[in-house]
């Protein structure tokens, strides 16, 4: 370490300690703060709780401090809520007060400091972006316009797996082919484009850049510099890599997709609204001066991350649970064969006639929630919550996983049992009609992608179960479902090898 940098850092730490003590005493008199572990100057609770603030670790803290508690992570206040009542306050009753988003040093890079929709603060920019994105992405009209494409992509997965002789014997990493399917599903909507194979050079490049973006953003490695600003000089190398990846991704989106669509639009009439893809609508908004070119690219950035990977994680979890619970897989297959008839491949309208399939999806989203803490919320101004004062710009985490896995609220929650959604929890929906079950959040900042994710999950899982007996690889009785978490994501640690034994009709 540079001697001058070390000297400045130590001086900065000393000054920060004095300031932190002064602020702590001042705020202690002013605020009635939620309970939590005793913080130390500068570092707060960071040295006690560490970087990995995952849903299980936060649940352990909730057992000690209650349904609302406060962590001071360096200079950041982090409030965690773990009850349906408090979650309703954050997401619904006080949805405006807690409707903003916190970002961090890395997300600031990848979103242009909130020029996107997902991570911008609650206000006029968010309302404008939400309005612009809703029509081309998040309506029933979009589902009906593109569902034939989703059915085709699922059929291509089945066809490709059947062509692979190893899939039926030693097995295949199904996720790789499903990843191509999900890119094609979303790129059809965004750009009216698809990739022919996993070896498509543009797909390989796009997937690699998106994967690097996810790795950098979801890592816990940069938390120390985010929590304690005076330590940020040590993040220079990390942040430089983030900026390089961001620039390369946005340039790729622009050169290969946005500009190509502009050229096509200049040579073809786009008068027929039904023929427009999402980027046409978004470029219309840019031409009207509602958004700028950067906003267009950050919308594409949001869809690449939020819509593709999260749905893929849920599909992967669903397959793993069906493999590990063959009796549930058999029951689902029986429903598909009985209701649709052997050989009738499931379509989007069929998913609404299959209650057990819907229960399997709900149970997968309950036990294996892709975003277990939801996307963090923030209050721009001082607020009240649960009888406590919440200082302005606090990061609010809703432990949605615990809400859906609390044994005081759910019968045997550790058990994968779709039947619960046909029996005691039959009225609970993924749309957030019950604050014990919020896989997509609820309220103003809920995930609008629910309207796309649920039918895609139904079509994909349905087609796989109809066409294959899904089994663990030879020598294994079950798949490894160890979890891997990120800043607020949850996916399977090891991409599973699945034996896909074709069925004869």
From TrEMBL:
<dbReference type="InterPro" id="IPR036396">
    <property type="entry name" value="Cyt_P450_sf"/>
</dbReference>
<keyword id="KW-0560">Oxidoreductase</keyword>
<keyword id="KW-0503">Monooxygenase</keyword>
<dbReference type="InterPro" id="IPR002401">
    <property type="entry name" value="Cyt_P450_E_grp-I"/>
</dbReference>
<comment type="similarity">
    <text>Belongs to the cytochrome P450 family.</text>
</comment>
<dbReference type="GO" id="GO:0016710">
    <property type="term" value="F:trans-cinnamate 4-monooxygenase activity"/>
</dbReference>
<feature type="transmembrane region" description="Helical">
    <location>
        <begin position="6"/>
        <end position="23"/>
    </location>
</feature>
<comment type="pathway">
    <text>Phenylpropanoid metabolism; trans-4-coumarate biosynthesis; trans-4-coumarate from trans-cinnamate: step 1/1.</text>
</comment>
<keyword id="KW-0472">Membrane</keyword>
<keyword id="KW-0812">Transmembrane</keyword>
<dbReference type="GO" id="GO:0005506">
    <property type="term" value="F:iron ion binding"/>
</dbReference>
<dbReference type="Pfam" id="PF00067">
    <property type="entry name" value="p450"/>
</dbReference>
<dbReference type="InterPro" id="IPR017972">
    <property type="entry name" value="Cyt_P450_CS"/>
</dbReference>
<feature type="binding site" description="axial binding residue">
    <location>
        <position position="447"/>
    </location>
    <ligand>
        <name>heme</name>
    </ligand>
</feature>
<dbReference type="GO" id="GO:0020037">
    <property type="term" value="F:heme binding"/>
</dbReference>
<dbReference type="GO" id="GO:0016020">
    <property type="term" value="C:membrane"/>
</dbReference>
<keyword id="KW-0479">Metal-binding</keyword>
<dbReference type="InterPro" id="IPR001128">
    <property type="entry name" value="Cyt_P450"/>
</dbReference>
<protein>
    <recommendedName>
        <fullName>Trans-cinnamate 4-monooxygenase</fullName>
        <ecNumber>1.14.14.91</ecNumber>
    </recommendedName>
</protein>
<keyword id="KW-0349">Heme</keyword>
<comment type="function">
    <text>Catalyzes the first oxidative step of the phenylpropanoid pathway in higher plants by transforming trans-cinnamate into p-coumarate. The compounds formed by this pathway are essential components for lignification, pollination, and defense against ultraviolet light, predators and pathogens.</text>
</comment>
<keyword id="KW-1133">Transmembrane helix</keyword>
<dbReference type="GO" id="GO:0009808">
    <property type="term" value="P:lignin metabolic process"/>
</dbReference>
<keyword id="KW-0408">Iron</keyword>
